[in-house]
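Hello forum,

I keep getting stuck at the same step: I have a sequence, I want structure tokens, and every attempt I make locally crashes halfway through. Rather than fight my setup again tonight, could one of you with a working pipeline run this one for me? It's a single chain of 510 residues.
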Amino acid sequence: MDVARLWPAGLKPRRGQLEAARLVADALRGGQSVALDAPTGWGKTLTTIIALRASGYLPVLWLCRALPVGTRVLEDASRVGLRVFVAAGREKTCLADVDREDVHDYCKYYRYRCPYFIGLDADKIPRFVQNYEDLVELGKELGFCPYYAQDFLISRADIVVQSYWRRRHAVRCIVADEAHNLLLPKECTMPLDSLNDAIAVLQRCPTVRSGTLKKLERFKEFAEEIQGTVDVAAFVDEEAFLDIAVARRHYLEHGVGGVLGKLLKVLQSDVVYVEGGALAGLRAARVQLPRPYVLLSGTLLPRIREVLEVDVFIEIPRRRPKAYILSWLTTRYGEFEEEENLRAYRRLLTTLKLRAKRVLAFGTSRVIRMLRSSVDYFEDEIVRVPSEWSGLMLLKTRGRFAEGVDIEADAVVVLGAPYMTPDVIQRLARVYRRLGYSSYWELASDVPMLIATLQCIGRATRRPSARPLILLADERFEKFEEELSKYLDVEELGSEGELRRLLYSNHFNA
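Reply #2:
Ran it on my machine without issues. Output:
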């Protein structure tokens, strides 16, 4: 079926949408992987949905990082008569009184005693429900398990929207929305102080051996004294892991949650490190997409396309906002901490604050600790970004507000190339090498840095009318000028004097 006949009546296709839909449909019919790289607001969702229907590759799994994407998929799919269900994992659907970190294992081992699982009956599940949120409310009212009730509704849907990490059902095709996120490592953290709570919990468990407690005590003492990666195997062996897992089962069986689930999750990560009073674990990205699949993104860098093995690449022309690389600055380890460099970053923020009503600044945890003074909004102190704000807002490059939000700003500045720490990069690269990736170093180093940079800039440029001043405050961005130029009109500024002339010119009049 031709895509033009499927286009919703009364909705005029934008330039390039019909052509892109035909290319996607043709690729799917040939069993190929296809990527659609188009700017925010162009209409990637509707274009892809029509291509899926035209090719006959339904049902489909629509994978995303944030489930609110499902609202957009629901709206566009309804225009062409397709059924959608937005599914969630146990963390969002379990009605049992269980700690979030324990919900998976509780359900796996003890769901037979859960009243909601026992009360699950297909006759109770309304056929009209389109998302997990409504199903949760009905589950509370009617006494059934929303998580497993989803399976019934998934089996009837043409498109199932879910996160990258939820278990997958058999489908004919997979769509990965914001596909660049597939290559970002998954992070989990816990405060270092929580190690004391975990040890106290283990001490009360009758099955835990004294040797395990001593190993964890030594691990805690070491972690409290360092900043950087930790070799968990030097402290915690398989016997200790078994003790912790058994203790966790013991507490779950008695209906007691706690910190042990988070501890296991962190310690069993591919890379474990200490930063800013927290113990963090990174799990390397493991991309498993059976063909055919569709990748959607607004920032599908060439390095990403190579790793994801794209057969057909469709790129939609875009407006490239102007961005300036500040080549006299750097947050490189060993140089950022020098007093002259720090003063230059502080002068940059002070100057921007004087010239712009709203300055949106992003930095890694290491950077923002040094530049936190004199800010009006700081990530750890706000629950949500206010719709009306002014002054200087300082957010983390991989924090809660680094993706999926629209923040109006007159200037957005990335305070240093947002690399992870050198020792974290080295260990993560070794993991990717063992997993068989030829570009293992880029996956651990450059790819996450570039993705984080473009995501931060995207917070202030989502609206077509947005025209913020964009500053990349690190000379290391020069190395990636060619790649960044696909999305930004990049120019280098070589001194503070050049920046001041720019700020006081007609180009930027706050």
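The chain has 21 helices and 18 strands. If your local run keeps crashing, start a new thread with the error log.
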